Amino acid sequence: MAETAQEILNMIDEQGIELIDLKFVDLYGIWQHCTFHKSLIDADSFVNTGGVAFDGSSIRGWKAINNSDMAMVPDPTTAWIDPFMAVPTLSMVCTIVDPRTSQMYERDPRSIHQKPSIT
Question: pTM for the complete prediction?
Answer without folding.
Answer: 0.86
